[in-house]
Amino acid sequence: xxxxxxxxxxxxxxxxxxxxxxxxxxxxxxxxxxxxxxxxxxxxxxxxxxxxxxxxxxxxxxxxxxxxxxxxxxxxxxxxxxxxxxxxxxxxxxxxxxxxxxxxxxxxxxxxxxxxxxxxxxxxxxxxxxxxxxxxxxxxxxxxxxxxxxxxxxxxxxxxxxxxxxxxxxxxxxxxxxxxxxxxxxxxxxxxxxxxxxxxxxxxxxxxxxxxxxxxxxxxxxxxxxxxxxxxxxxxxxxxxxxxxxxxxxx
Length: 251
Fold this sequence. Notes:
Helix content: 25-40%
Strand content: 25-35%
CATH superfamily of the largest domain: Response regulator
Number of domains: 2
Number of helices: 8
CATH topology of the largest domain: Rossmann fold
């Protein structure tokens, strides 16, 4: 199995390397990358590894920023000394979250989980390939049940302007500007809604096409979205995601 380690502390990287060398299954480490910038450059220039071991707090910021710049397609095992990021980590291809100091049995269990997932999805490739057509036949979520005070109300999917993540919460905003707290992650919601209508423009926003009022060119080939109802922050689409977004808008 080919993997990459993203870790800025040399002792921690060396410890992980030694633990991987003792695992039952052979693991070939293609590179040890020490910063967000180094990781982005490497991933842009090489084929995706099968698995990434990723620390969260790096010397130049949180490693989640990597996902804002490039599309990371392989699974991630996060390795960190901090437990407060675990919920956010599972927005980014995470299959496990290992706290430092990493215990050999925890690492072995994480690798076995990866192999089981790989075998499962390989064995179910045909059903996965049929998934889009099944969804197009009416499998997408039509309504969301949300809570307002002590009452529950049903919001039609087409009335949702966008979903966004903030402070470890996910909120829905409808076309009239009402906001509701959701009990699901953005990643979970994304799998339930029609991709012809909603687009994950970045790690924070999942936007209904009808809510997009203006698209502006931004620095370094990025895009800036204006949506309604208005938001108080810039919604930026990365350079790597801009072409796919424009294709989606023109479908």
